[in-house]
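Lecture 7, part 2: worked example. A protein chain together with 1,3-dihydroxyacetonephosphate.
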Amino acid sequence: MLVSASEMLKKAKEGHYAVGQFNINNLEWTKAVLQTAQECNSPVILGVSAGAGKYMTGYKTVAAMVKAMDESLGITVPVALHLDHGTYDDCYKCIEAGFTSIMFDGSHLPFEENVEKTKELVAKAHELGMSIEAEVGSIGGEEDGVIGMGECADPAECKSVAELGIDFLAAGIGNIHGVYPANWAGLQFDVLSNISDAVGAMPLVLHGGTGIPDEQITRAISLGVSKINVNTECQLVFAAATREYIEAGKDQQGKGFDPRKLLAPGVQAIKDKVKEKMILFGSVDKA
Ligand code: 13P
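Predicted complex, written out as structure tokens:
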């Protein structure tokens, strides 16, 4: 069931658990995440980066595929189709394409411009029943060409942006996209705690979910994080399972080269990873 992410994240914040955003890359990814959410009776957010949207031939293709698949698989758990780190223009493209949620990432803009554009997009998104995420501070590392320096967010700026009527807020707290370097200092819980106090009931978003130790995830949830984004980790397990299949020569046995067989171990690896995260985030049976 395609819905905005507003209600599911309000419930998550009140219930002290988090909903996973799993980024999708193609049909197999989408099917794996949807089927796992249904099996776990968990709400879920499908994240689409600009790069993944382009790869799938555009946001309209993505929206059409997700809507049709949600229907044909008989998915009854709440599913939000969400633009990840959107530019101003991409937000409008996703509004037009029929997404149910957008993220406007104005974190690299001067703060006043971030506020102004976020405000405009809040009005547009809410007029259409969509949810909207904004970002303050920045997420370190690189995701599909979006590069961040990883500055921690200022709680006062978080409060100002939360008051614009957004539905959930991404605030940099030392998190990084991609694999964490060995000398990573960990999440900055003092910053998270101050942001949480400043924004009150606003659900907070933790980007860069790949590789954060379980105990830090649990602590972040206890301090008000209600949405956790995972992308790289699913890519890594997909690649490893596919490599294993080919290195074992299975693509050369019988009809093992059939893409439906070749990609099956990778798809299963995504499902297992998504399930593991849903259990860790506490969203199982919260649909
Ligand atoms: P990872 O690729 O580090 O899991 O980050 C995902 C993310 O934050 C998407 O916005």
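Strands lie at 19-23, 44-48, 79-83, 101-104, 131-136, 141-143, 146-148, 168-171, 204-206, 225-230. The longest strand covers residues 131-136. Keep this in mind for problem set question 3.
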